[in-house]
Amino acid sequence: MTTSYIDEEGRQSAPDLGSRRVVWLCAVLIAALAAVSALTVQPVSGVRWGVAALVFGFYGAGELRSVEIEFRNDTHAFSFTSVPLVVGLLLLPFPVVVAARAVSSLIVLGGVHRQEPLKLLVNVTSHAFEVLVAGQIIMWLGETESLGPRAWLATGLAVIAADVVGALIVT
């Protein structure tokens, strides 16, 4: 997938180098998602499907109601998706949370907000990768079964790491 542009005379120009780099970044992130998902052994049996539906719905609502801040001729949009991330990380296997985040982003950003395909690819890939990183941190810290103070600390670190990863991807 590449982006081409229409010049002042209506001719289609070649894809720019920046678009190619973005596509390659997304390809690398998708490959990393696939590799980590294949290597991670976390059973998805016994999923609380009601909780999964709730997390999916909260992700969609968070994407629908984003806040846009304009700063130095750039607009940055923030969505309230940390709450479903926390609930999902504490109560669901993280592959289910990754899927809920990716699908809800695809539906809202692609279907409702009608984002351009390259921007949609970056956003959906970024969102899935953020949740993957957060889930890996929870697993590395060994807090996948409890809901005690250590689990909350691990979840807080995971959410911060996910936010940092998201910021790094889009900059």
Q: Can you give a write-up of this model?
A:
- There is one protein chain.
- With about 170 residues, this protein is mainly alpha-helical.
- About 65% of the residues lie in helices and about 5% in strands.
- The protein has six helices and two strands.
- The protein has helices spanning about 15-40, 50-65, 80-90, 95-110, 115-140, 150-170, and strands at about 65-70, 75-80.
- Strand 1 (about 65-70) and strand 2 (about 75-80) form a beta hairpin.
- The protein is globular.
Write the layout of secondary structure elements.
Blueprint: H1 17-39, H2 49-64, E1 67-71, E2 74-78, H3 82-91, H4 94-112, H5 117-140, H6 149-170
Antiparallel strand pairs: 1-2
Helix pairs in contact: 1-5, 2-3, 2-4, 3-6, 4-5, 5-6
Structural class: mainly alpha
Q: What's the number of helices?
A: 6
Report the sheet with the most strands, covering strand number, pairing sense and barrel closure.
2 strands, antiparallel
How many beta strands in the DSSP annotation? 2
Strand order of the largest sheet: 1-2
Distance between the termini: 20 Å
Question: What percent of residues are in strands?
Answer: 5-15%
| Mean pLDDT reading | 79
Regions with pLDDT < 50 over 5+ consecutive residues? none
Could you say which overall geometry the principal axes of the C-alpha atoms support? globular
Rg from alpha-carbon coordinates:
17 Å
Fraction in helix? 55-70%
